[in-house]
Here is the input.
Amino acid sequence: MSFAGEVKKELCERGGGQKALCLAELSALFFLGSELKKGEKGQTILRFSSENPLIAKKCFTFLKKSFNMSLRVSKGEKTEGRRTVFFVMLETEESVRTVLRALGLRPRSEDVPPYYEWDCGILKNPNCKRAWIRGLFLMDGTINDPAKSYHFEIGLPDLQMADFLINCIGEFTRKPKLMRRKQRWVVYVKDGTQIADLLTVMEAHVSLMQYENERVVKEVRGSVNRRVNCEVSNLNKTLAAARKQAEDIAYIRERIGLEQLPENLKEIARLRLENTEASLQELGEMLHPPLGRSGVNHRLKKLCEIAEGLRSN
Here is the structure.
């Protein structure tokens, strides 16, 4: 199961608590996952559908807990990809009106998403907002495995609701960003700490611990890799400089001989030829008396200048 699937599984297993919290979460589920249909007798049917059986079960449980009315459950098959879909249906006009009114949903005349106008007044307190965000994520949200990348998003068919969701999340953590993707508005986050905050907001505590463990491992691994890469780069530069110094000294030896050099340059030249991979500090410690890194560097630069002078002549 994907990480997003694990998060949704945990959220589905979480009880609703007070009736207001159940209604807030159901409001999100029905806004994104339900539609009005005509029954065999011409009556209006409210049908909730989901490919995730756990979400359908949660919808059924919350409806029973909140309204204690007759419900019908069935499953069908989508023509595209032949995927199984689970349905929860209210089949009386009275039950449909009661549920929609309680969830703050009013049907629109257009037969395209969103099918409802939504009343944010049902979110009476911060806990209701947490439940509402949780419901939106269950229906049309996803979160990447933190071991791979940091990405969290919720897709919505309505710009006004997307703006409300951004402000709602902003009450708990930094505001997410918004982009347009085909016919939907996508509220998204790409910051690891902010995603951890959202898992806390939705009360996915087990997933949060797993997420933080993966994030720590990933960041430590990244830090070690950056340090190793930096050290390798510095080592390569040091070796390249040492090879260039040895080539210059060898050229001086071929052209005029090292005996023509001043005593201090002759000594460091001999040490560099004998120790081509030694650092400047190590060369300085081989001198008598020992010399600091900057002093060794100064003498080697003098040798390079001599070699360049000989080449130019």
Summary: The chain has two domains: 3-203, 232-312. The longest helix spans residues 205-255. Strands lie at 34-38, 44-50, 72-77, 84-90, 105-107, 116-118, 141-143, 152-156, 177-181, 184-189.
